[in-house]
Amino acid sequence: MLAMDERVDEHVPVEIEKLADSSSTVNTGATEKAMAHEDENEHVPIDMKKLADSLSGKLETLPPLSTKCSIYRVAEPRRCSNPSHYTPQMVSIGPFHHGKEELQPMEEHKRRYLKCFLQRTKVSMARFLTLIKEREAELRDCYAETIHNLGSDEFVTMVLVDAVFLIEFFLRFCESDWRTDDDRIFTKTKLFLVIRYDFWLLENQLPLEISLLTITISWFRADLSGFLPIEEKLFENHFSKAAHFLDLFMLCLQPSQSRAPLQLKYPTVPGAKELHQAGVKFKAGSSKNLLDIKFEKGILEIPFIPVYEKTELLCRNLLAFEWLHDYTPYFNDYIIMIGWLITAPKDAELLFENEIVGLSEELPTMFGNLSKDCTLVLDGFLYSGLLADLYIYRKSPWHKWKATLKQNYFNTPRASISVIAAVILLLLTVTQTVCSLVAL
Questions:
Q1: Which residues, 6+ apart, have CB-to-CB distance to 123 below 8 Å?
Q2: How far is Cα 251 from Cα 11, in angstroms, rounded to an integer?
Q3: Which of 73, 75, 303, 420 sits in a 20 to 30 Å window from 435, CA-based?
Q4: How deeply is 347 buried, as exposed, middle or buried, from its count of CB atoms within 10 A (0-12, 13-18, 19+)?
């Protein structure tokens, strides 16, 4: 045995021998430190030693943190105010809500979709599982917390079932011929509507794959873009950089034009109605980017704001993701800005008249509630320059006088005729008076 060991050592590189010698030196130093540490611990109670050993063990088993995480749990303060806006109602996607009892009925539908998918692709399940297993560590790193409740086999299985469910769902959405007679998701309209909203939730995401580009773009074009109008080319441009569906939305919502960061000197703005009375005109913006609000020559241009039943849900999850993922808070600033403009029903009515919003009595309440989840940062607020221009404009007496004249005396053809007639009558009266005085 000794001779064999000597032969093995003959092939050990010199660098490795040096490294081993160096390690021995380090170990000697470590031993001396350990002895000194033991001397220090001589006066520590036994129960404290046990507690220290227990805590040290936990410190040694801490998993490494990844800088690639993009899927988060929503902070409790946000969740408590509106828990239903962050919690899936029908289907779990990913590990955060996996296994919840109230979501179990949909697991059978997931497995049916998986069966159909495998039959169509003619690829073995083992092959798909192997591919996911090879990327398990990378996939786990996408989540902001360690997934303790799922072992390796459970995690890999969950990813396969959920990923195929999404793919099959999008395929059946785009191609009705692929739907089966027993598909209760697409044959039951209400079930379909609830499930599609579950896909928007921050805690209900899977890492996005480039192979999903075509069917995902079709889904966004036909369904999701109606809630937040976004140029179609932006989906394709940002898809490869997006971590998941919600991230894709956020990347597309960046301002189309860069703005110089300014200190916010006027951290509020009157409602739309009050601005209108001060002479500000409103116009529906031509841009499909919601954030492109502009103010030029007395006209406040705002892209059309679509509002549906679940708009608030989508906005809340975008705000939560923007904050947790440390994006520049552009969407946060947009919600604050619109919240200032729509504080009362009269503001919403004015914007409706100018085709900026669909008439909704709930707009002031909705944006007021959303604003509670926002943080106003004075340094670098997206609309700082716009607010400064608005402030200067509405402080001009001339603009307010013109607005008052137009709104009170020239707001209808009949009113205009009456005012003109009164002016003519006044001029005639003055002329007659002057002529009488001259005759004298």
A1: none
A2: 55
A3: 420
A4: buried
C-alpha closest to that of 331 among 252, 239, 267, 226 = 252
Residue that is written with structure tokens 């009595």 in the block: 361
Q: How far is CA 231 from CA 83, 138, 219, 237, 283, in A?
A: 31, 31, 14, 10, 20
The residue type of 163 is A
> Does residue 249 contact residue 231 with C-beta atoms inside 8 Å?
no
Q: CA angle at residue 393 from 390 to 397, to 5 degrees?
A: 145
Distance (Å, whole) CA 432 – CA 12: 121
Give dist(CA 137, CA 129) in Å, integer. Answer: 14
Query: What are the backbone angles phi and psi of residue 378, rounded to the nearest 5°?
Result: -65, -35
Instruction: Answer yes or no: are the C-beta atoms of 288 and 406 closer than 8 Å.
Output: no
The three-point CA angle 148-85-228 to 5° equals: 115
Per-residue pLDDT of the chain (440 residues; tens, 9 = 90+): 333 343 434 444 444 344 344 444 444 454 555 445 555 556 767 788 888 888 888 888 777 777 889 999 999 989 998 999 999 999 999 999 999 999 999 999 999 999 999 999 898 999 999 999 999 999 999 999 999 899 999 999 999 999 999 999 998 988 888 888 889 898 877 788 889 899 999 999 999 875 666 777 777 766 666 677 777 788 888 888 999 989 998 998 888 877 776 778 877 789 999 999 888 999 999 888 899 999 999 999 999 998 888 889 999 999 999 999 999 999 999 999 999 999 999 999 999 999 999 877 889 999 999 999 999 988 889 999 999 999 888 887 545 545 454 554 445 566 555 556 555 666 666 666 666 666 65
What would the two tokens of residue 389 be? 């221009």
Instruction: Kindly state the tokens that stand for 88.
Output: 């899936």
Count CB atoms within 10 A of the CB of residue 189: 9
Residue with tokens 């600033």: 333
AA letter at 59: L
Give the start-to-end residue ranges of the domains of the chain. 76-207, 272-398
Burial of 114 by CB count in 10 Å (0-12 exposed, 13-18 middle, 19+ buried)?
buried
Enter the DSSP assignment of 272.
H
Give Cα 427 distance to the centre of its chain.
Answer: 62
pTM listed for this prediction: 0.78
